[in-house]
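[scheduler] slot 2 assigned
[scheduler] job type: sequence-to-structure, two independent chains
[scheduler] chain ordering preserved from manifest
[runner] begin chain α
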Amino acid sequence: MCTVKCSRFIAGSLYPLAFISIVCNILLFFPDWSVQYVKDDRLTPEVKYMGGVVGGGVMVLVLALFIHLTLKQGCCANRCGMFLSIAFAALGAAGALYSFVVAMLGLVNGPYCRYSLIFWGRPFKGSSESYLTQLDKWSTCTEPKNVVELNVGLFGTLVVVSSLELVLCLCQMINGLVGCICGANK
């Protein structure tokens, strides 16, 4: 078994996923490419939870950096290093799960937008039918421009990315357990 090679592959895969997660969350702060909505506190609440930055970004990067740095120094190729990778992988899995839950809530509840001449809110929240499959309902939101498309695209990307991160973190937990019990093999 090549537990060290598996760890190297997982760490290398987590870097771009964490980067994508952070970028998607940051882009959600600027619907219509304007800072005005941040200033006026007119953002979808799930954007402010920063699941992509904190969960899918920083918490997953901690695991990737741990694996990368310990493999460079040869510290992960022992039972103690593999045991520690289990703990860091659990942290990464918790972050990926947080990002997944926040992104799913953002998709289900819909964006915060102007949906009539004077009302701001979440017109799709609590509706009996999903707005995701009914494109004609997307025009309900008049401001910010294309906010529904932005939210669906970026929250959807966060769901996919955090799912992949979760799978990789769980694989690293299993890999670390095997390396801890059987000994780390290169």
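[runner] end chain α
[runner] begin chain β
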Amino acid sequence: MGKDCGNHADDDFQKSCRRLLLILLTLALLAGVIALIIYLVLRPTHPRFYLQDASLRQLDLSNGSAPLLSTTAQVTLASRNPNARVGVYYDRLDVSASYRYQQVTLNSRLQPAPLYQGHGDVDIWSPVLAGPGVPFAPFLADALRKDIAAGYLVLQVRIDGRIRWKVGSWVSGHYHIFVTCPAYFINAGAGSGYGGAVGAHGLRFQTATYCRVEV
């Protein structure tokens, strides 16, 4: 008789555990469905990024079989949240410059971080990007010399960061954001019409550009 009572107690405990597990799974499924409905209804659009200006303060390439590149540039970046009902948290935005896919400056973190961007808000940053004595591939060094001699240079300003979406009191998890902005420089004597500051090697920023954004 005592053994039967013990078995009944075990059965009741197992049933209670199964009910609790079922309730937790139902709540988790319900939360996921609500989040999906919010996403499908609001469909947050990626933030828009623009490269407004850039100036080359330094672009020095050493000679030899193991060339080193020293670069200093100041860029002006703008970001706009195009969503009418979705806010954006920028938890981290790291900016760097690259030449033909090789990074030539250190990462510069945009401040303040984190930053909240409301509906239709615009934020502007002007970081200085520096890369002293960066090891540079010889074939890229040859290409860079040719570009400078031709008076036309293209750098890529890149942003690597993490963002979250905000709808009312609900805040999403983290998403990776990648931004690529082409920076076109031409010899100041060519007359770009933009009027940017003349920098290293007589190169001047040609025109403001739209950036590609991936989330």
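[runner] end chain β
[qc] chain β: Residues 2-42 form the longest helix (41 residues).
[scheduler] slot 2 released
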